[in-house]
Every structure is written in C-alpha cells, then in structure tokens.
Amino acid sequence: MTPSDASTPRLSVVVATFNRLPLISRLLEQFAEQTLPPGQFEVVVVDDGSKEPVREPLLAQIRPFTLRVEVQANAGAAAARHRGVLAARGEVVLVTDDDMQVASDFLERHLEQHPPGSRNVVLGRIRPDPSIGDMPLFERWYAYLNHRMAEELSVPGARARGNHLYTGNVSFRREDYVGVGGFDKSLGQSEDVELGVRLEKAGCAFVFASDAYVLHGSDHVSFERWLKRANRYGMFDTQVARKHPDVRGVNPWRLLFETNPLARPLLAATVVAPQATRLLTGAVMNAAKAADKLGLEKAAFAGTSVVYGMEYLRGARSEAGGWTGIAREVARYLQGQRGR
C-alpha cells in the first residue's frame, strides 16, 4: 500500500532492479526513514524482468511515501531507468542503484543542491560499504577509483564535467533529461557518461556533493564477468566517442597516452596482438593478487588497472574494426589534444 498520489512530489527517486528483491527492499526501508517529509518525494522502482516477482512483495508493505513499481521485460538498465524517469512526477529526479544504502538525510542533501531556477546535475559521493574488504581485488579497485575521483572533485576549484556522470548517485531536473532525449538505450555500457555529455552541452551545470553519499556493496564476484564488462566498456566508449568527437574524455584511446608510462607498452602490445597477450593479462592479474596478499595495496591496484586497460582496449580495438579504424580513432584523440 502507498499514500494517495493526489499531490505532486518535489523529488522522484528512480531505481532499476533485477533479481535483487532483498536489496531493493532494504533500500526502500531506508527511504522510509528520510528527513525529507514523505509527501515531498516518491519512489519509482522499475523491475527489469526479474525471475521472481518484485512488484507484489514491494507493494504489500506499508510505506510513508508514494511507491510505484513498473514492470518490463528485460531490456537492460538504461531502458529501465529511462522508463522510470518518464514515469516520474517530480521536478527533480534522483537515480540510484538497488544495491546502495543511504543515510537519513540523503534525499534532503540532494534537493538542497537544486535551488529554484538552477539546472544542476548533482553527483553524490559513492562510498564503499564497510564489508568491501571481503570482496575480490577487482571490486575493491572500483571502490578505490570512486574514492580517487571524489577526492579530485572535492579540491577547491575542481570542476565536475558531463563525462563524470554515473547512475549510482545522481540527480537532475526531469525537464533537462527529457530535453536531451534521455539515456541512449542502444548503449550496453557508458550510457550514463554519454547522457552527461549531452546534458553539459545543453547548458547544465555539474555539481559534486560529497555529503549526498551512498554506501555501495557488491555481489559481483566473477573475475570473468569483470573482464567482460571491461571489454564492453571499450566497445561502447568507442561508440560514445563517435557520437561526441569533440569530447576527449570519452575517447578510449586516451589510455595509450594518459596512463602511467610504465603500463603503456603492455597496453600497446594488447592492441597489436589482442589474443596473443591474453596470457600476459593473466600473469599481470596474478602479480596484482600476489601484491594484494602481501599488503601492497598500491601495487595491487596498479596491476588491476593495467589488466582492466588491456581488456578495455581489446574491446575498443574490436569495435574500431581493424587498423584503419584504430588509426581514425587515435587521430581523433590527437586532434582533440591539439585543440585544447
């Protein structure tokens, strides 16, 4: 059961979910404890084709806020979030993930970053769940990257950009989202970054709000699936770069020029011989794991970054379609460098 839908909320929270009923239930319990009055927000959950029913168990619970649950055949996170934003009634939409946890002032912190007349895109901080230490090295590496980006954006004078956008913790005006066409549902990865680029081009201002944080755990434990995601990011970032050739920060070939010089030979070797270097990728990951066991976290994360970059560039190379395509993409990056 949910309260009456008679009044229009100030804020709509959109959460896509897939086969995670316990996690989305936990998140909804935390939304019930928000300092923002329940009449000022709603939650729109989009079930992206979960095997077990989600709608009925969620709506069976009494909650102080309006909850609506949309159900669709599995079409991916971008399509699910898009459906949720279109169904939202609030002026401001906040998108987060079903495996997040939030503090009681989470929604209030986001709303205060959207004063009347503003066109802000607010990036909240993603902090690791305290149990992250029990997760595999590659998941702790993700948490490290989130922390590093948050620290960089927290420096006075630092400027958040469109290509920083991530869907784990972001809010924006619904009107701006609809105005730029929403998520590109043809992208299997990086649809968040691509949306951010279009929002920035449309005149939105990006704001980093460290106090509007979420805690992120993870149920990803497969190294093979992690590698596959890296490969897909390389593929789809290539597509994003083609859509936005004027934005250097989305060009996947930047890794060859911006990565630590010590890692560049390994990345270049992967581009030249993507299959022959797979054993080398495994050896680097084994070295990273060994460093991790010895407590050498910095070295372990550095090795994990190299492994990710190698698989990422395999994906970019595949999408580029051969040496002619690679040369075109690299030239586009270099032209962007000269145009800075």
Automatic annotation (TrEMBL):
GO terms for molecular function: transferase activity. SUPFAM superfamilies: Nucleotide-diphospho-sugar transferases (SSF53448). This is Group 2 family glycosyl transferase. Residues 12-140 form the Glycosyltransferase 2-like domain. The keyword Transferase applies. Keywords: Transferase.
